[in-house]
Amino acid sequence: MKEFIKKNIYNIIAVLVLVILTILGYIGYKKGLFNSVDTFRDFILSFGVWANIIFMLVQVIQIVVPIIPGGLTTVFGVVIFGAFWGFIYNYISICAGSLLVFFISRTFGKSVILNFFGEETFDKYKHKIKDKTYEKFFAWAILLPVAPDDFLCYLTGLSDMSFKKYATIILLCKPPSIFLYSMGWAMGLEWLVNKF
66, 125, 139, 162: most buried, per Cβ within 10 A? Predict the structure, then answer.
């Protein structure tokens, strides 16, 4: 038994984390925590000094369990904590969630992707992981704020890409897209508030 646990420790952790995060994401979704900025802000700030940790946990959950709109929570980070700290908390948690997704995908394989994203989305991109230029495609997709990042992170877990290469792309290419996405939405939100 000890040998089995030692050999499969990452798989066991991935299973436990996926189960816990799925439950937490579902509870938050059902309680309407993501329905408005005010609801989410009140929830996060109710944790006092732990607010940033709770926010980052929510961000990790929305990466692992893609039922929560990721762009929404990214903007919430900037709205709640300000531009600088919002970006920092978003970056740390989105990268952590993205790295975790790689292990979950490697552990559960294609079935987890089909359950979260459906066969149509999978079929649209599955051929890309066999392409020699997939690493470049993935890096550009992560760099630009318009690609389906969460899905591509799961998909990359099925590819031959090493974790080291994957982690390097995530850590280097995420900051510009997080910055553009969160600041773009936050500025747009501020413009709307001032306009009306």
Answer: 66
